User: What shape does this take?
Amino acid sequence: MEVWTANADGSGAKQITSYGQANWAPNFIPGSGKLIFCSNYEYKRGFPFNMYTLNSDGSSLEKISRDKGFDAFPMFSHDGRKIVFSSNRNNGGGHDTNVFIADWVE
Assistant: This one.
């Protein structure tokens, strides 16, 4: 799975990532021209999933989370000051997925 962008009518489709593995759950970061998405591309066994940002042209990849589990589904407040995401971190080794809210600071 790779991340693509397109116009609302489906025209202008453009592939943004080509990392292999699962690259998914993309969202735009308000006011920045960047995207945030989740991926396991660094891990041949397919896990963990971490969050990454990149420019909308696919350049300047930056790793945002470094958990050994599952960080996914990032979304931003409309003003871009808060990020919310789901994670299996701090679950005592179980299978619970929790929702985290954090200030977004670049």
